[in-house]
Amino acid sequence: YRGKTLAKRPVNSWSLASATLSMSMDHPRYQIRAAPARGDLPRNGDVGKVLEIYHETEMWVKSWFIAWMTLGDGFQWDAALLDRTLRPRPEDLRKLAERRLGEAKAAARTLGVPENHLFFLGYPDRGLLHLFLENFFTPYRSPATRMDRVAYPGTVSPGAPYTGEAWETDLRRILERVAPDIVVAPAPEDAHVDHRATAYMALRLLGERGWLSRLRFYIVHGGLEWPLPKGLHPGLYLEPPPRGRHLAWQRLDLTPEEEARKLQALKAHRSQMEILGRFMEAFVRKNELFTPASNPPMAP
């Protein structure tokens, strides 16, 4: 593929993820990241909707922040597997969300990200696009958990209604606190509905500040069967996804030590690895891929 290799140098970054999206400002991994890379991308990552992780030295990692938009409380197959039931109850899905929060903290510790650099928003899994569109002012009720407001301990705004307005307020507050130089978020081309909604929100909030040049996108759900082959293949390169073939990708090469650390962080997400392990392991490759939000698509 056509693209360029990114230089590696310390930056102040922020990332967002949804369910599996995480937001971070001085740190990596769902759903958006921001870092002071000034055109280059940082070498650290987080796991936002489950599949983005960056690696770095301790000094590098401490400059990252991560924000998770959701906590997976709409993933009924996962709850069914973990609880050994065909029909998981709303309380089972709420319990899954609390477990996911603990796993995310464990993954961040593996990457060396301080806990005070982590932000858990707790909005409804598979409901973010509803919040961004028709439920911007009217609370959305999750069909999975039967909740219409943030109810998890350790979240940014406990009791906040499931509205786009509340979600936007939380993200705006985090942006103002961190003042990131680079933000990494899922791309609008991602097939997951929460990832796309997170991309739209990132474009809105960074665009109103004139910060679109700071935004970098990545893709997790990039098309049928991507990436191939499934499973752990650390000696292979990650190729651009079918849904993003038209984008101008930049490649960030990883050392074998960084790949090993990424795998270790992924394994901390035990509840997701049990059902999506081979898919998640397929992202442990010799490189990461990012595309600038402000860059035009490549010519055919």
Tell me about this structure:
The chain has 300 residues and is an alpha/beta fold. It has helices at 58-61, 76-83, 90-111, 128-132, 164-178, 193-208, 256-267, 270-281; strands spanning 3-5, 13-17, 23-24, 32-34, 66-70, 118-123, 182-186, 215-218, 249-253, 287-292.
Describe the structure in brief.
Helices cover 31% and strands 15% of the residues.
Task: Produce the secondary structure layout.
Blueprint: E1 3-5, E2 13-17, E3 23-24, E4 32-34, H1 58-61, E5 66-70, H2 76-83, H3 90-111, E6 118-123, H4 128-132, H5 164-178, E7 182-186, H6 193-208, E8 215-218, E9 249-253, H7 256-267, H8 270-281, E10 287-292
Parallel strand pairs: 1-9, 2-5, 2-7, 3-4, 5-6, 7-8
Antiparallel strand pairs: 8-10, 9-10
Helix pairs in contact: 2-8, 3-7
Q: Rg from C-alpha positions?
A: 17 Å
Order of helices and strands: EEEEHEHHEHHEHEEHHE
Which bin fits the share of residues in helices? 25-40%
Shape, per Cα inertia axes = globular
Number of helices: 8
Q: What keywords describe this structure?
A:
300 residues; alpha/beta; eight-stranded mixed beta sheet; two-stranded parallel ribbon; 31% helix
